[in-house]
Hints:
The structure is a single chain. By secondary structure, the chain is mostly helical. The chain is 88% helix and 0% strand. It is built from five helices and no strands. It has helices spanning 2-6, 9-76, 83-105, 107-110, 115-125. The radius of gyration is 32 Å and the shape is rod-shaped.
Amino acid sequence: MQYLKDIPIRTKFVLFPLIGSGFLIATLILYATHLNSERQALAHTEQENLAKVGVLSDLFAQLSRNHVRIFTMLSSTAEFLDEEAIYENGKKTLYLIYELEKKISQLTRQFTLKTQEEEHLSTLIV
């Protein structure tokens, strides 16, 4: 720090703000770089993951509704032993399950899936 004592005060008043401005510019560049990478990550999440979650939650809701239909139909068989009505209700539910299977198998065409997601999907389809 001895060399700072030898510098005239006028030079110090010019030099220190320049050094501070240099650090400020470097900090702003780092901030802008980080902000840009976060923006790209958010855009990727928004485009890819949120759409995937929306489709998966819709499919899950449809599967849940079919599950409730099946249990309602099975519990009502004890009260009403009309085989034709049971057959008709079961047939509608079965067709809905086939449609859901088609939608689930189309997930790989709609989205790029990670390896773990593909493994879960393959166990679900089989």
